[in-house]
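Input/output pair, single chain:
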Amino acid sequence: MRGDSYLPTLLWIVSWALYAIAASVDCSVTPLSLSWSNITVSSNGVAVTRGIELGIGTPNQIFSLRPSTTLNNTRIANVLDCVSASNTSCVGGKGGVFDSSKSSTFVVSLKNRWNGSAADSEAATGAYVYFNDVIDFQANGTVLGYPLVENSDLISGPEAGLPLGQNSSFLAAVTQAKVAPSSVWGLDTGDRSLSPRDGRLVVGGYDASRIATNLTTFPLGTWTNQQPCPLQVKVAEIIYISSNINISLLSPITGSVTACIEPQQQRFTFLPSMAQKFANFTGYNDSYPGLTYPTGTRPDGALQITLDNGYTTNIPNDHLFNPQRGSDKNGQYVVTNSSILDTGIAYNVDDADADVQLILGGLFLTYNYIVVDYDNNRFQMAPIVQGPQSSSANITKICTPTPTVKDSEAGQTHTSNENGSSRAAAIGGGTAGGVAGLAALAGLCYFLLRKRRRNRQRQHQEPAEQPFSPKSMASELHSDGRRPSELALVRRLILLNN
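Output:
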């Protein structure tokens, strides 16, 4: 057996040993800034998805994921969900697909030995492969041994997303690896209207240039089956304001209603009784699918949402109603029918109020900036500065040092402006001594892995005993020899035959 056969395992051991040593908060690290924009996710350069770009595996496979506060692990789609990576419409719709056979640093894991979060539930119809791989965050850092989940679901579709939940393995990994100074995060979702603008996720702080007024503080909500989300607010009133009438969509009997703020979903989800009121007052014709209208009968109203503390958000007409859009054959989000107006509200009138959770999605966040601090059990919100991002973002760090810093600093929260210092300097400055030695060893392992892959490509098939590799590890775990990337398809076929 060749001497480098255990390099993948050694790489993950070294990387997580480095994390364990470096687990204390390091307030010298620059916040992690990730743009939310249109990303090309297919190898032929055709499929484009709006989200946060990640590079997964060696070499990188590109993904564009929407953040989700209801996920705690990074879930991505399997290439077999699209049959092949050349199915650009499917690949674009899923924000990228992963082919484990093409990553030399892929290592599958038993679920109960995996280093991700145990908080996420599994759908009865889903198929899940738990693994570790290299992940690159745009130009802002790399994490080795990052926990990921390949998620396939034939019935309801895969749930892909970048996890921002209270037990997020993403937030844990970037802070432990010193890619971000803390798990506090600030989010500007950008604008998805016909006049779009990019957004930005900041981990370890927030972008002060996007905040129009003072931040308002809210307590985190309690996660229940009725309110399955951490960012909860009490909605006191939702009014549809038109040129000739103002209509309250909330029942006066109901009073205030708890709502989830969720960036992964773009539309509002109202209670069915509210959606029915909206349909009635806007002259909706149910012969049209969903809550859509002919362009010639465009409603002229807007929405006003008021929380129980008086915090108010206005959604103007040109954002509430837009030409019907969707993914085209190339997986790009475009206007698909200019003669039909779509509404930023889900049409769910056939459901019961008791079965539906009120959700303020990406359209609500187009007008609001949020800063989330799970450690202090709170989040903050402020009206967002409209218009394109400024050329120089004002990234403000939020970090509470651990007792390893000077006694005079212990227990204090550091809030400072970052002036574009390089990511390499921030990471290097926060790692010393034994951590630096482990980092060097990890780098050596990574170099040897790359070298081994190139050598294999130049050699003919080798006889005799096979070395350890992600593929051989997968075949040991699954005696029939299938790769983990094939398991989802097999499970789906079983579902179809039952």
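DSSP finds ten helices and 27 strands in the chain. Residues 27 and 365 are 29 Å apart (CA to CA).
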